[in-house]
Design goal:
single chain; two-stranded antiparallel ribbon; mainly alpha; 3 helices
Length: 72
């Protein structure tokens, strides 16, 4: 019972993982829409970790807005 509330880890600091099997399920069943979501979350995590310059952030921000508007 106690293990039910624990997580295995997280993807990009925002997506909880329950187990290694959960990660495998995400990978094997990923849709195009989900892949866009995961890419956006990965970019946000990298930004929060200081991985990009200001110019790079501008380009990424515009690209995310364009991708998000075509998927919505």
């Amino acid at each position: 019972m106690e293990n039910e509330n624990k997580t295995f880890g997280s993807l990009f600091g925002t997506i909880p993982l329950i187990s290694e099997e959960h990660l495998d399920a995400i990978l094997s069943a990923m849709t195009k829409e989900e892949s866009t979501y995961y890419l956006v979350e990965a970019i946000k995590a990298a930004y929060n970790r200081g991985a990009f310059t200001i110019g790079e952030v501008e380009v990424i921000s515009k690209a995310i807005r364009l991708v998000a508007s075509t998927n919505g």
